[in-house]
Amino acid sequence: MAYKFDFGAIVPHWQLLFDGVILTTELTVIGAVVGVGLGIMGAWARASRAPVISQIVGVYVELIRNTPFLVQLFFIFFGLPALGVKLTEFQAAVLAMIVNLGAYSTEIIRAGILAIPQGQIEAAQSLAMNRVQIFRYVVILPALKKIWPALSSQIVIVMLGSSVCSQIAAEELTFGANYIQALNFRAFEVYFVVTGLYLVMSILLRMGLKVLGNFLFERRRHV
Amino acid sequence: MSEFSLWDIAYNLLLAARWTVLLSLTAFVLGGLVGLLLLMVRTAGNPWVIRLVRGYVELFQGTPLLMQLFIVFFGLPLIGLDVSPWVAATLGLTLFTSAFLTEIWRGCVESIGKGQWEASASLGMNFTQQMRYIVLPQALRIAVPPTVGFSVQVVKGTAVASIIGFVELTKAGTMITNATYEPFTVYGCVAVMYFLICYPLSLFARHLEGKFRHVAR
Amino acid sequence: MSLVELHAIHKSFGELEVLKGIDLSIDEGQVIALIGKSGSGKSTLLRTINGLEVIDDGVIIVDGKKISDRDADLLGLRLQVGMVFQQFNLFPHYTALENVMLSPQVVKKQSKAEAKQIAEEMLAKVGLADKMMHYPDQLSGGQQQRVAIARALAMKPKVLLCDEVTSALDPELVNEVLAVVRQLAEEGMTLVMVTHEMRFAREVCDKLVFMHQGRIHETGDPEEVFSNPKTPELSSFVGGLA
Ligand SMILES: Nc1ncnc2c1ncn2[C@@H]1O[C@H](COP(=O)(O)OP(=O)(O)OP(=O)(O)O)[C@@H](O)[C@H]1O
Ligand SMILES: [Mg+2]
Questions:
Q1: What is the sign of the dihedral through the CA atoms of B88, B89, B90 and B95?
Q2: How many structural domains does chain B have?
């Protein structure tokens, strides 16, 4: 009667999990880099004096932040073809992650920009810098530095959230798990192990982002 | 092409949205209670308990919600408890919520300065009195906006429950799409409904934040 | 017998030994000034007397009773010993009156009317009868500190500890607080105060305790100690201030 755990049943399928880890990593890296880039532009637009652009970005941010990632993903993958935009599973997953992270990081980075003391900006103005120069040289790095922990957490959240991309058959880690449990009927064991893999990945990602943060913000001071 | 009008789609989604709301409310309330309990035992400060609670929080914050639901859904039958998707989703989301809320609230309690603890201690208060009269009243005020803000995450989290077969808004969207072949419209409607639930909560959280920022006490 | 007796008090923070064997007795009605360089351990000493720091070794006797670090003892200790902090530490969510009333009510279980009467009395004593309904953020620093003094007094402590109670204040607000402390001293309150106000210490205190590197380096009558320091450390400390 008592259930006998059999974690060994996963071993023959390790390749699937390995491929899944790789794909999840790819999704996360592309999503994070482009998503944060989008966030920087979004924050710039929000801070800009063109009210229309600022408002459009504001609507984008609110729409994304107030709907589930899974629905965004379905909309992009199943809905967009109606407009003639056909994407592969991978493309749809990446796009969803970019759009999602872009919205969150817009808000996060904007908070960082607002926290820059007005005196910094006035000093730059008094040195005859224009708005782009001020943003580029005076504002963005300290702003990013300030919100780097929050941004890192958001990137981890997006990485973990990518597990639902299995639902459009993007072959990331959870997809691998689903596939294996359909082969060996060991759902609990498979998901247990995969949960562990995600935990390790999120810890590594967090550490990596910390190192990256140190690199970006500490070294720069000597340049 | 299909005999479903926009109204039919919206109406059926609306029916399913009730389950989204119910699941969110249940998970939020139960998760809040568990979170409060964890906060109390943690603040009282046995180092082992602190470590345990921290591990709990890190586990739930470091793994996908989908995996948490899967483990509950596939794990409970192994110990002889056959659970419906509703029970599994409620339990999974409750645990998820409790981990996040207890962490949010810990931050609030810790933001109450050392001086407040010391001043109340110097007046002869014990831990319970300090908590009750000094720390919690202040922490609660700080905690309200982020707590309301987190409720949005809970609502969005319920969408993941569709994957273990719980029929709520997202799952209904998929089912209706399969019947109508109009994914653009259907998922558009689904998104709008989530937005209608979440956006007011977000606005309310922001409103509270502004309000509490200006009033120090 | 003295009201408070400290014997061979030792206290370390990790590797750093902050109190290296302190002996001190505080008599009833005595007003003691604790002086010394920053980091010499003045605050730490004061906080051990109120049980805010747990000592590693030594004995604290208050009113004839030895204090251990059991919770019950600590609470008992704090009923006898009041404290006023450099940063006031008023409870921001209570009015001045409520700040003063709270502890008599919840700790001493006094009735609301009783607590209120005492609180009003104490607030009047520190000159704030007209500010009772104000919240801390509606009061100046000097007023806040006076509320904090009233709050400590409402518990009817046998000893009042004051840690640099004027250091966080703007210069023009210092005197209103010192005036209250002076009045307490004149009424016979037992006081131990860490202070950098040397003139005040000289005028008001009965005994001066100079701390240096975790030890009591020199002690005596303020007048005498100031005009005739026996150790080079104290004379350089006093000289540095002048
Ligand atoms: N909680 C603590 N943890 C670690 N070290 C501490 C702690 N509290 C105090 N110290 C250290 O103990 C030493 C004595 O501190 P204390 O606050 O007693 O000095 P002080 O004489 O009151 O100085 P000041 O005039 O600056 O207030 C200092 O070196 C301080 O850094
Ligand atoms: Mg000090």
A1: positive
A2: 1
**Is residue A47 a part of any domain in this protein?**
yes
A152 is in which domain, residue-wise? 14-222
- Does some domain include residue A1? no
CATH number, residue B37: 1.10.3720.10
The reply to whether residue A68 touches residue B184, judged by beta carbons under 8 angstroms, is no
CATH of the domain at A196: 1.10.3720.10
d(C-alpha B153, C-alpha C156), whole Å: 51
Distance A34 CA to ligand 2 centre (A): 51
CB pairs under 8 A between A and B: 117
Q: What percent of chain B clears pLDDT 70, i.e. is strictly above it?
A: 96
Q: May I ask the CATH class of domain C4-241?
A: alpha beta
Contact list in A for residue B174 (CB cut-off 8 A) is 74
Tell me whether residue A3 is in a domain: no
Instruction: Give the nearest ligand 1 atom to C53 CA.
Output: 1
| C70 phi-psi bin (left φ>0, alpha ψ -120 to 50, beta other) | beta
> Residue ranges of the domains in chain C?
4-241
Domain for residue A198, yes or no?
yes
pLDDT of A87 reads 93
Is the minimum distance from the CB of C13 to ligand 1 under 6 angstroms? Answer: yes
Q: Are C119 and C83 in contact (CB under 8 A)?
A: no
Q: Do B122 and C87 touch (CB under 8 A)?
A: no
Chain B residue numbers touching A78 (CB-CB < 8 A): 177, 183-184, 187
For B125, the closest of C103, C148, C152 (CB atoms) is C103
pLDDT in tens, chain A (223 residues): 567 888 888 888 899 999 999 999 999 999 999 999 999 999 999 887 788 999 999 999 999 999 999 999 999 999 999 888 899 999 999 999 999 999 999 999 999 999 988 778 777 777 667 788 888 878 888 899 999 999 999 999 999 999 999 999 888 998 888 888 888 888 889 999 999 999 999 999 999 999 999 888 875 544 4
For the CA of C196, the closest atom of ligand 1 is: 25
Task: Give how far Cα B96 sits from Cα of A183, B191, B195, C242, Å.
Answer: 29, 23, 22, 63
Query: Residue B1 falls within a domain, yes or no?
Result: no
Residue C38 CB–ligand 1 contact under 6 Å: yes
Nearest residue of B to residue A205, measured between CA atoms: B62
| CA-based nearest distance B191→chain A, Å | 6
Q: Which CA distances in Å does A32 have to A25, A157, B69, B157?
A: 10, 11, 25, 21
